[in-house]
Design a protein that fits this description.
This protein is α/β, with parallel strands linked by helices. It has a 5-stranded parallel sheet, sandwiched between helices. It contains 40 helices and 13 strands. α7 (156-168) runs parallel beside α9 and α20 (389-398) runs antiparallel to α21 (404-413). The chain starts with 12 loop residues before the first helix and ends with a strand.
């Protein structure tokens, strides 16, 4: 059942409370200020029923005002001292004086009230803010938070509309399907009570959909025998000076909000102070609303009520060229020390930027289209949806023009355009340093991914030389290190990028580099460090209000928890990331989160739920045409199926992997080994020799894989295969090493990171190399000293002390049972099993 609001005054309880508290003290000069149709008169009449009410809307001057007041009090007024005598009479009367509709005679009201004793309480209703009086702002009623009927009924605007609609049509009960329709009506009428009541009255003969469809003709529709929306608004416009009315017509071109920069750019505005004066006049006349954003306090935004816009300039131009140029400026500021104001401003202007972009594309205005596209791309990159980047960048780039190269680079960053080395080389050869460095970064990434790491190295360093303080250039250098297999060096380069971001105050870049560091530590197997860095990066992005980038990165926390074996945390993290992605319309990545939760189900021993999850994840990935994601999910699903003995299902899933990216090749190899282990288990009873051959082959193939190339996505499922093969061999691993010896773990201890302990890492690497060459081989103190501190000259005694300290530290970290003192130095125990 839908509740029936009892009072006729809906959604104004807070304003009523404020008004009552103001007049209780007896001495008050209060103006209830709001646009025409906001319900000022009704608020005062219903809140102060015993007040002395005097309607002065038809008064023209001081004399008319005094006559109206005398008539209301029942006292004839004569002589020059009438105002003062009236004040004494009002003091004895003791009632609150209410002057309704004072905007036309505001100067006379202020003059007359100034002669009254301070103890005479006076309240006015007006569309123009009187100087020196306390103000009670009466804006529109609150709009629904969502497009559901439940949200509509919970909002003050919706409650009033439904209440008045029932009065117009007895028994009317809106249905759930009408929720979005009513919400649109409420928004288009700005929540103004008069407009809502006039619209609701039309429900006598119209349905809600018909009402919505005729709102383009609102001034003919919203009227009755007493008043009309047009008459109320025109009476407000009549109070404006011609220059201010002309400015209002120009500002009608902004359909979202605007700031002072837009006001200053309008014709007839002579500078910043004039812009402030002019917008202040429009706000004071209640024709322009003003607000602040919660995430950016201290800055006011402005906007016309929709009905005012429709009345003053229904077809006002969108000021496209100016807005596109301003948007591009904001997009570049978004990479500066304080990106939040730029992103917030772009978000407010987004509706008009989209309109500007469409108009520029239609007229082939490449300059305006390019600028608007780059502005929108900066917003979509930060806040989503990411899927909107491709169409905007592609359409603008097709027009050519001066922003062609920048659009090309932005599109390659967004993976909208495939990397084109020839095009990138052309861009890198000439032009501004910022654009050349950007092109070199992309060239370095492309050559690194294709195996040309030497060329990539030169290009990344050239980008750094062009812009030494640009963190993204050092990120490209870190990516080249990673492509060369030097992951520990990559982490060091990322730390240099982080220092550059902190030094320049580039908070967006700082958050990005923290995310890259988290992924690198995860690739090295340092779960705790990856989790801490990833959490910091997401917190920074949340503080910058960049939900899209935070949502994409949030998936990493689920992957880290999976890798660490914390299944409950993995399920929670993947679920939280999926909710974030859904909130920003980033459907493309949600399949990965669904697959991650399916993987958790498989590890928890729930194969039915795992199969259903993988099936849903693959459907989602196919819908968004992401071959790589389809491949990763299929490899996971195939390995999980093999682990549960469903060989045919695993083979069918593996056959779906068509992308030949390196990470998918690795994933296919792991899944194929898992399938062979599952086949061996099927054969063990009826064909022991065949099973043994499969097991032996699986072990050999696993030993032959280069684990330094494994991504985190591969390592998650490779752990199952490691366990399965170790179970076949029946052996215990004494020391397990991460890629580039970034970490080690022993059966009785947790994983220990060596990324920041360079000397200890090099000492242990020297011992491991000797052990692999000849199990139990000893390494001298001099050899360990040279390995641990290769570029230093150290006296023998001091060197022996360094080596002793390093080995003592490694033993304390869990290697006491693995490291031994030998006659000529130190060694790893001869029978110790070291992997990989």
């Amino acid at each position: 059942m839908i509740p029936h609001p009892a009072p006729s005054l809906v959604g104004r309880s807070e304003e009523q409370r404020t008004l009552l508290e103001a007049v209780r003290g007896g001495s008050v000069r209060l103006a209830v200020v709001g646009p025409g149709g906001s319900g000022k008169s009704r608020l005062v009449a219903e809140t102060l029923p015993g007040a002395l009410l005097c309607t002065v809307g038809s008064c023209r001057d001081r004399a008319d005002l005094l006559e109206a007041l005398g008539n209301a009090l029942g006292v004839p007024l004569i002589g020059d001292d009438d105002a003062e005598r009236l004040g004494q009479l009002l003091l004895r009367d003791g009632r609150v004086v209410v002057l309704d509709g004072t905007e036309r005679v505001q100067a006379a009201v202020l003059d007359v009230c100034a002669t009254w004793p301070p103890a005479v309480p006076c309240v006015t209703t007006t569309r123009i803010r009187p100087p020196g009086w306390a103000i009670l702002d009466l804006g529109p009623l609150g709009l629904p938070a969502a497009d559901t009927l439940e949200a509509v009924l919970a909002s003050p605007a919706g409650a009033l509309f439904v209440q008045r609609g029932r009065q117009a049509r007895a028994g009317w009960t809106p249905q759930d399907a009408e929720g979005p329709v009513i919400a649109e009506v409420l928004r288009r009428l700005d929540g103004l009570p008069l407009a809502l009541e006039l619209a609701a009255a039309r429900l006598r003969s119209l349905g809600t959909r018909q009402l919505r469809d005729h709102l383009d003709e609102r001034f003919g529709l919203l009227k009755n025998h007493e008043t009309s929306l047009r008459a109320v608004l025109e009476s407000s416009l009549a109070l404006l000076d011609p220059p201010d009315r002309a400015l209002l017509a120009q500002l009608a071109g902004f359909h979202g909000g605007f700031d002072l920069a837009a006001v200053e750019a309008m014709d007839g505005v002579s500078g910043p102070i004039d812009a402030i004066d002019r917008i202040d006049a429009l706000v004071a006349h209640s024709l322009v609303r003003s607000w602040e954003l919660p995430r950016l306090p201290g800055k006011r935004w402005y906007g016309l009520y929709d009905s005012v816009r429709e009345l003053v300039a229904p077809d006002a131009p969108a000021h496209g060229p100016w807005l596109a140029a301003y948007g591009l400026q904001l997009a570049r500021e978004a990479y500066g020390p304080d990106p939040l104001p730029a992103c917030e401003t772009l978000a407010v202007y987004a509706p008009d930027l989209r309109q500007t972009f469409e108009a520029a594309v239609t007229t082939a205005d490449s300059e305006t289209a390019g600028r608007a596209a780059l502005a929108l791309d900066a917003l979509y990159k930060a806040r989503g949806p990411g899927s909107a980047r491709g169409p905007v960048l592609s359409r603008a780039r097709a027009l050519g023009g001066e922003h062609h190269d920048e659009l090309t680079l932005a599109g390659m960053d967004a993976r909208v355009f495939p990397p084109d080395p020839t095009e990138l080389a052309r861009i890198a050869a000439d032009g501004p340093a910022r654009i050349r460095a950007w092109a070199l970064r992309n060239l370095a990434r492309e050559h690194a991914s294709s195996g040309a790491t030497g060329q990539a190295w030169d290009e990344a360093n050239a980008a750094v030389a062009l812009e030494p303080g640009e963190p993204r250039n050092r990120v490209a250098l870190a990516e080249v290190y990673a492509a060369r297999g030097e992951r520990v060096e990559a982490v060091r380069a990322y730390h240099q990028a982080l220092a550059a971001a902190e030094a320049s105050g580039a908070r967006r870049d700082e958050a990005s580099v923290l995310g890259f560091l988290a992924m690198s530590e995860h690739d090295l197997g340092n779960g705790e460090e990856a989790r801490a860095l990833g959490t910091r990066a997401i917190e920074r992005l949340d503080a910058l209000d960049e939900p899209r980038r935070a949502a994409v990165l949030a998936q990493l926390l689920g992957e880290v928890a999976l890798d660490m074996g914390d299944l409950a945390e993995a399920d929670r993290a993947f679920g939280a990331a999926q909710a974030r992605l859904e909130a920003v319309g980033e459907a493309r990545w949600q399949s990965y989160c669904i697959a991650g939760r399916a993987l958790v189900k498989a590890l928890q021993g729930d194969p039915g739920a795992a199969r259903a999850g993988f099936r849903q994840a693959l459907i989602e990935a196919r819908m968004h045409d992401s071959l790589r994601q389809q491949g990763v999910i299929a490899c996971w699903a195939a390995t999980a199926a093999a682990r549960n003995g469903r060989v045919a299902d695993a083979e069918a899933l593996l056959a779906e992997v068509t992308d030949d990216a390196p990470k998918l090749r690795q994933g296919r190899q792991i899944a194929a080994i898992a399938i062979d282990v599952a086949r061996a288990a099927e054969l063990r009873e009826r064909d022991p020799a065949g099973a043994a051959a499969l097991e032996s082959g699986a072990r050999a193939r696993l030993d032959g894989l280069d684990r330094s190339l494994w991504s985190s996505e591969v390592r998650v499922v490779a752990r199952w295969v490691d366990q399965a093969v170790a179970g076949l061999e029946g052996r215990t691993v004494d020391l397990r090493l991460g890629p580039e010896l970034a970490w080690f773990e022993v059966p009785t201890g947790s994983r220990r990171s060596l990324v920041k302990h360079h000397a200890n890492r090099r000492v242990l690497a020297c011992l491991v190399d000797a052990h692999r060459a000849a199990p139990g081989a000893a390494v001298t103190v001099a050899e360990l000293l040279k390995a641990g501190w290769p570029d230093e000259l150290v006296l023998p005694d001091a060197g022996a002390a360094r080596v002793y300290t390093a080995l003592s530290t490694l033993r304390r970290w869990g290697l006491r049972a693995v490291l031994e003192k030998a006659e000529t130095g130190y060694r790893i125990r001869a029978d110790a099993v070291v992997e990989p």
